[in-house]
Model the fold of this input.
Amino acid sequence: MFLALREMRRAKVRFALLISAIGLLVLLILAQQAIQTGLITSFIGAIERQSAPVLVYSVDGQRTLQGSIITPPLEKKIRSTEGIATSGRIGQGTFTVKVNDEPEDSDAAIIGYTDPAVGAPDQLTTGRLPNRPGESVGSDNDFKLGDRVRVLGPGGPDQATETIEIVGLADDAQLQVTPTLFVEWPDYVASVKSANPDAGGILPSAIGAAPVPGLDPETLAGRINDASDEADALTRQAAADETPGVAEVSQSFQVIFLLFGMVVPLVTGLFFLIITLQKSGSLTLLRAIGAKSSLLVRSLMVQVVLVIGGGLAVGIALYTPLSQAQLGDIKLSFDVGAVLLWSVLLLVLGLLSAVVAARRVLAIDPIEATTGEGGR
Amino acid sequence: MSEPSSTPALEMEAVRKVYEVADEEVVALDHADLSLGSDEILALVGPSGSGKTTLCSIAGGILSPTEGKVVVGGKDISGYSSKQLTEFRRDSVGFVFQTVNLIPFLTARENLLIVDEISSRDRKRASRRADQLLEELGLTDRADNLPSQLSGGQKQRVAIGRSLMNEPALVLFDEPTSALDTKLGDQMVKLIREEMKSRGTAAIIVTHDDRITSYADRTVHITDGRLEA
Amino acid sequence: MRLALKELRRRPGRFGVATVILTLIAILLMFLGGLLDGLTAGNTGAIRAQQADLIVFSATSQDSLVRSRIDPEQRRKVEQVDGVKTVGEIGSVQLGGRIEGRGLRDLVPVVLFGYQAASKGLPAPPTSLGEAWADDSLEAEGIEQGDMILVGPARSPVKVTGFVSDTRYAGQSTLWASLETWRKVQNENRPDARVAPGVSQALVVQAPAANQAGLATRIDEATGGNTSSLTEDEAINALPGVSSQQSVFNQIIGLTVLIAIIVVALFFALITVERIGLYGVLKALGAGSGTLFAGVLLQAVIVTLIASVIGALAALAFAAAIPAGSIPFIATGPRIAGSTFFLLLAAVIGCAFSLRRVLKVDPATAIGGGQ
Done:
């Protein structure tokens, strides 16, 4: 310990540079981990938040609510599948809205449901579910309780359009990175007609279904798919994971993590190899006067742990305030699990990377102290 | 080639060098007076810590004196700035250090050309001079070898060659024989004398080895920063 | 200078470490940049292909194509605005395409556009009903010229008459057909978003350069404030996610460059320490600090250039190797050049940290040295 700390104190600048480089890398890795999670949640949060364990799209919908339409014959087939305890319509559209008296118009994704047990948010942070016409639950980072949201139509400000009041809030409830509202079916229909007065019969985008007790959602989804080629039934989680774009985002981030993750052990390992080579004279001297190899190696490993630990501390400290913020439309969060995982991973990788330097330490022959060849 | 002239190679008058080391004043060189003829070889003898390295450094324009006057080859360098000293060393002085003499990744020939490299003067002329020196020093067949491929004596000879590349007024040798056995050391000092005399170049050889003094024109002893005649 | 080069050539191992790490960082920068470019291209191709001077949406659409409605009356008003040369209608519908031979639930997401005006990016729309140009990303799905794609739940048939490049929209492949085809497909598949004849989603406006100033405002005034006219860049920024993607990525790239600076500073500091003895000798022989530092800079620049070349090759190889549609990545010249520039900047700044140490080297250390 003594040797390790003394050396670090004598060479503050280089160790400080290394720790700050690792700290920044840790910050970037954690930030990107949060961005990945936040990005995915802001795309499909609403899918995971709504209460139906099984979601049935039309095959043509390509597993998005926006693209899916359930025609009456299809709806009949779906709802008559054996094993369904409850089923309800789910409709979704994206609208131009005005929130309160804000000067700028904004976007809102509106999700309508006929049965709150299969379609409404399963958890609220505050407030309650709608129980009267004109009420809704909103995504909590976009709305506040009591906000009034007016759907805008082509007829300009004089057109009488649907107005919705926020009576409840849910978190991680966005769809397609858009502020999202959950409403009862009649309000959804009214919203669609406000935006497009020529709209004909309003069809649902999906059917939400819950299995009877004793039946798991996966099996039910399978049965619904068997009942009709037009149906695309998925469990709630599968619907979230298989939304187009989600897999792309995950894959892209995997490559990013791989690259950033490689930089840390590489920089650490090479740094320690170089300084080991540079101080081989002193190391030879120490061995000649009786220091054990294992002591020198342990000293090296202590430095590695301190450096990576220091970098982790710096990175996490920088990341914590960032994790409370919103990056553009993406809400970040402090994921303890991810932080722990990366801490352990980087520590292990760092120690492994120092193996080359350790081997160099072990290869030192104390006799070289006398021949003067210990130094380079 | 410098012609024998009456301009002294070195004139030091009342030179003092004082260092401040942890709140104490250390006098490395005290009231040194020294004069060297234009082709004179001086042996500077003294134990370690006697100040001989300091004197050499001041004479060679590596250090500035705290007090006193230093004139080398007719140039008064006493008040030269760091930049002026750098230029002066490049153009007027040769060095043969005790260790770390040669650049390890350059061949013998390239080590000679390093001075021209630094100042980018006449490349062709420098090239010819390098080849000539290599021949005179018996190193022509070693011209393309790296220092790691040369013996101790050969390395010293390359260093001597390099010190003569810029036709200096004065060459400073710092313990040139310390790493050589008696026979090689003897050969080395003979070679130094030959090279200096044949060119009429002055030299100061710093050494703690009294046997070498027989090859010098004059010997000066130094102890605790003070010169004795 | 030549000394610095000789050292690089004769002692490459000494610089190997810095080169390896800089190469990794170069690959990182180019990957991040290529990812951003790929995402952006996939989002904005359709709009860029219009080469429009202005794109006119309806005022309440939030500049979103799918929510916008332009009727013939508004089109007439726009055409009559002073300075407008040509006006083309455009409409879109996002549906799933069925291709022969693929599984039941294995649909290809496509956006079908109806348009009028040809541009450098798009030939004139096919005159026959039910025919369309296809973005060449559909070739990766196995589609060939003459193939039929059945679009949407109504299985509207669309025949591919040829291919166009770089016309994707919102990350999806696109089909380009006449307005009639689009309206037919839209009405068959999206009854709740039915469009009457003559109705479109937006207008593509071309105007001679001399008339472009203030044209957007004039158009919006002429329609009584019922339209929102945007330049191509504004329309692109209005696409969901585009500007936030760019800002997030640019921040990450910026931080990565900062890391590169620190890493270069670190490793060149280590290299400099090893050469203190050498610098002492060189200074004693008369080399100025400037010369020595220029040598260090030169080495840093060369090492960085080597790293950039390897990084660029890796980026190009990656772009060629990934299966189409898996990761949105494109390797472009400007991006590679830009990444190289930033890496060089990082190298120069990182080297500057060693400047002080080079300046401090005392030539006196060369004499009497035993170390």
Chain A has twelve helices and twelve strands. Chain A has a mean pLDDT of 88.
